[in-house]
């Protein structure tokens, strides 16, 4: 590995240490249903997002709530002396990507078969502190 490549890799690694995120892989919910829940909390303050997810009737909101709690625990591990209420954390980015698709067959009339696609997804949540610029 060249010196320039090594230096940029180290810079990227140090920048990643300053980010607070959590990811969920192969969640057995369709990405379309998960994106509806992700759009509800994108850009929200963390406590408000947790309240919205807790009282949502969607099944995917339980998984996103647990994932948000995990990202919050990652933030608390790096910032031990700081209180959550004073930090002004918000959901900086939440992305839902398609995961693997399990292909199954369902019987159809006249000896045919229809393909059923059981979709899954990958969700990544990243948190950041809200900084106000006083100029």
Keywords for this entry:
135 residues; single chain; 5 strands; three-stranded antiparallel β-sheet; alpha+beta; Ribosomal Protein L22, Chain A
Q: Strands across the major sheet, in which order?
A: 1-5-2
Rg (C-alpha, Å): 20 Å
Mean pLDDT: 92
Largest sheet: 3 strands, antiparallel
Q: CATH superfamily membership, which one? A: Ribosomal protein L22/L17
Overall number of structural domains:
1
Number of strands: 5
What is the string of helix and strand elements?
HEHHHHEEEE
**Termini separation:** 44 Å
What name does the CATH topology carry?
Ribosomal Protein L22, Chain A
Structural write-up:
There is one protein chain. This protein has 135 residues and is an alpha+beta fold. The chain has a single domain, classed as Ribosomal protein L22/L17 (Ribosomal Protein L22, Chain A, Alpha-Beta Complex), CATH 3.90.470. The protein is 43% helix and 29% strand. The protein has five helices and five strands. It has helices spanning 3-17, 31-41, 46-54, 60-78, 84-87, and strands spanning 20-27, 89-98, 102-107, 113-118, 121-129. It has a three-stranded antiparallel beta sheet. A two-stranded antiparallel sheet has the order 3-4.
């Amino acid at each position: 590995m060249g010196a320039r490549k090594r230096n940029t890799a180290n810079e990227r690694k140090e920048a990643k240490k300053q980010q607070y995120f959590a990811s969920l892989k192969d969640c057995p919910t369709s990405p379309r249903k998960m994106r509806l829940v992700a759009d509800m909390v994108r850009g929200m303050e963390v406590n408000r997002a947790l309240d919205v997810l807790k009282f949502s009737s969607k099944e995917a909101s339980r998984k996103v709530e647990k994932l948000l709690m995990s990202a919050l625990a990652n933030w608390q591990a790096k910032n031990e002396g700081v209180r959550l209420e004073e930090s002004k954390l918000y959901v900086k980015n939440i992305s839902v990507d398609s995961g693997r698709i399990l292909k199954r067959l369902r019987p159809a009339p006249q000896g045919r078969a229809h393909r059923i696609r059981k979709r899954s997804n990958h969700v990544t949540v990243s948190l950041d502190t809200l900084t106000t610029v006083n100029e």
